[in-house]
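Example with several molecule types.
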Amino acid sequence: MQQVTAQQPASGYAQDFQARRKDRMVEPVWLIERRQAAMDAFAAKGFPTRKDEAWRNLDLTPVRGNHFEALHIAGSADQQVEAIKSVVPGAIRIVYVDGQFSEGSSDLQGLPAGVTVQPLLPALERHDALLEAHLARLSGEREHPFASLNTALFFDGVLIHAGRGAVLERPIVVAHVASAEATGRAVYPRTLIVAEEGAELRVAEFHLGGEGAYLSCPVTEIDVAANASVHHHKIQQEGADAYHFGVIAARLGRDARLRGHSHAFGAKSARTDLYVDLTEPGGEAALDGLYITAEGQYSDHHTYVRHLAEHCNSHQRFKGVLTAKSEAVFDGLVLVAKGAQKTDARQENRNLLLSKRALAHSNPRLEIHADDVKCSHGSSVGELDKDALIYLRSRGIGPQDAQGLLTYAFIGEVLEPITIEPLRQYVRAAALARLPGDATVKEMA
Amino acid sequence: MTALLEIKNLHATVDGKEILKGIDLVIQPGEVHAIMGPNGSGKSTLSKVLSGHEGYEVTEGEILFRGKDLLALEPEDRAREGVFLGFQYPVEIPGVSNTYFLKAAVNAIRKYRGQPELDAMEFLKLIKERMKLVKMEDKLLSRPVNEGFSGGEKKRNEIFQMAVLEPTLAILDEIDSGLDIDALRIVSDGVNSLRSPERGFLLITHYQRLLEYIVPDRVHVLVRGKFVKSGGKELAQELERSGYALFEDAAA
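Resulting structure tokens for the full complex:
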């Protein structure tokens, strides 16, 4: 990475954009325009600072002070790619290393009729109308600096499309892996998920990386049409020195269902912004989140759920476990638009501090412009129940195990709803590996 | 013979205030002792000190369990050495099922004693057998520990845990409080069925009624942090007739 002057934090990224001018020439006009608009939006404001309300807790100095140049040549990350293959047996798998499609590691065999899982680039070459209708549409509406960077600079990505009524039993694993070559560089993972009317999809999106400081700015767009259902799981396990600033933007049609899970374990500093629009009656969004922070980590979730039509439900439940000297943020806005009557919106954020040096910010917000709605929010930041600890210890369970048992009980609620059983096991193991306690606790189902 | 429990000149303070002012007690294997006393006499402080709760400071004296310094042991090690403490207010633990909790406890204790851990089948057999002792319903096993249990169910759960963990010394703190007569019978039957020549019990109670069902070998009356009288089971009946007032006068 190159040091840059504070006055021109964005200039390096403008250079990245310039450098890719030729590559863009083969792209469809609509995409060229969207990329340009995104670059302009980013250039106009640059990176946010702590003066920006939505970014006040995040120290972006390391990102502002350096230029993480876009990486377009994939390095090798064999170990992690190999590991991801066995996580969900029988899954359809599409693997990207440093933003590049890794055909050899992917398994796209046996897709049923009506379901497409493929890299974006070939789809672009075919000027697919589908992409024009959806790509950079949901994320483009929001002026999110890192989403803008992604739209301007993403090299390739994955398209997942389920046509009308297509129901895919097999889960889809999307893996975005950063290799050692990504050190000091930036990767822009891109995922587009479209479920047409009545379609059903389950996607597990992994973000993995090795050692080294790199910047990952993933964008995932999810369009759930009428009566369709999407389960989306994000499993963020970036390398310990990585920066991960991502966006998930979803739009739900009439009677559409979205089940979103965001599991944030890795990176030095990570933030995921979830935008969910309930645009027609009957939509239902359930968002679960789990973050576990270790020494020196910062983990952030911002959610923006907009009820734009009546009779929609949204249930958010985010749980955090903070250890050592670490920091986490949950900031959630539920907006109920005028006329969005019979809205049922619930928002819950619970934080468990396992250390005196950990700091959790919890900021649930409601903005209601309709009068016949049911909205609730709850938030808490606390330590383990001392009485429960002494009770467990008085039965012979050691302090580490007692802590682990209670902590596991605390997070169990957000693991349960994961319907892909091997994935649930994987996330559970990943969570347990980051919690105190020994084998006694870890064998709990 | 080494006593099961020996409390010598125990003084303890809470927030700097002396609550226990010199307690002496010896329990031999096979004996059941009862400590009775009015509210504020120091009963709960004694049980908290025995369990290793934070915030209770022993300023003088010692407690020996089979000759070992009990106060030097961490709460979990007291349990592993064979001491069971039945809580006056059993704690609700959402998200942890009764079964997992007990299995973790049983195996932690076995590990400490150098015994092999029980596998799922052996464990299930053990708890099924012990459930009968306290007429525990199956459904309570899969429920989170004490969560949503009635007062009687919580106390029964304590006795059930005791039956599974098979302690050498059981200290039961107000195991009878808030129980109706049926529940009290079940709890008492459970305790009585676990009486053995090797095992000792210390019952801490406010009410004499418990001692009609669990007949003690010795009764001690605790008033203002000291034993004002000790005697046989007839002392409980004397208390029933005269109340604590008589003893409170004696202590003043």
